């Protein structure tokens, strides 16, 4: 089986919900990330065999984002594209799909892009197609509805949303509010320190945002990081569920961003003048109960370790998406591993944000650039997934 290499992982800065990137649609963000990958690598678009896009909140304004964004970015019309959705794991799954295409010889060069414009997720109505006989019609917030409907209610009952799943884990694993707030504060402090030290410079591709008047404004830096955050300031916030541990301050954000990379057959790297950062070394997915979806990385990583033989102790860096601080802490207890010097060293979902479809590729960019700085070998990326899944992948620095 052929080896699949990761080339030029990058991302836009992450915008807050309704923030600096609100006026840019998902297709515009994705097209920008695609163009940046081509500009940085010098690769001709005609060399791309496939475009795979991760997006969890797709829209008919730009259907099949993989194809739509590829065309918008100026790729040749002969280059095909498709879109996938594994919720929070979508971006990583797109990388995995690309790697499997390369490993099996179906493709030599695959461009992966992950995108979400959560600020532009629409409201929708199920009552209008055939008309409403009388009375009012109801509009749903697609963003919130997707969290409430993550499981068949007939089988699992009603789950109010993702905070409920985190509270379930907090009770099961004995995670306190104080522990959650300390974890969240650490995430913000690490992300702020990474920006100040210039550690995101190589992975971030700034983007120009058009204005109603005047010249476009260049958006260059993640805007959800709160460097001043401390456990004490977080302790003053009200919990989402009365008496619970989850607050707006120790949960992941809603965000806008795009991220992209190339996945290339190692045998073609020299010919295409491409410099790899890592080799795709394995992956695993696992299911868990939807009401405790946050524990998904525990069975997923256990399966990955069995497949690859590489253990958590061998990892130089671990990227665990921070859906909620309580959820991340429960995963660490489930692993029986909590080396914070190797975990999310530059922050994660609580501080950098969680633009669902883009997160997996964003995490990969952060992981591989930091792995290179540290001259490490093994990097693990893993996340929980709404609906009750976990996803994990192993990368070896080249």
Automatic annotation (TrEMBL):
Q: Where is the Thiolase N-terminal domain?
A: 5-267
Span of domain Thiolase C-terminal: 274-397
Q: Where is the active site?
A: 88 (acyl-thioester intermediate), 354 (proton acceptor), 384 (proton acceptor)
Question: Mind telling me which InterPro entries this protein's record contains?
Answer: Thiolase, Thiolase-like, Thiolase_C, Thiolase_N
Tagged with keyword Transferase? yes
Which Pfam families does the entry mention? Thiolase_C (PF02803), Thiolase_N (PF00108)
One GO molecular function term of this record is: acetyl-CoA C-acyltransferase activity
Q: Could you tell me the keywords of this UniProt record?
A: Acyltransferase, Transferase
Q: Which GO terms describe its biological process?
A: small molecule metabolic process
Q: Does the keyword Nucleotide-binding apply?
A: no
The family line of this record is: Belongs to the thiolase-like superfamily. Thiolase family.
Name listed for the protein in its UniProt record: Acetyl-CoA C-acetyltransferase
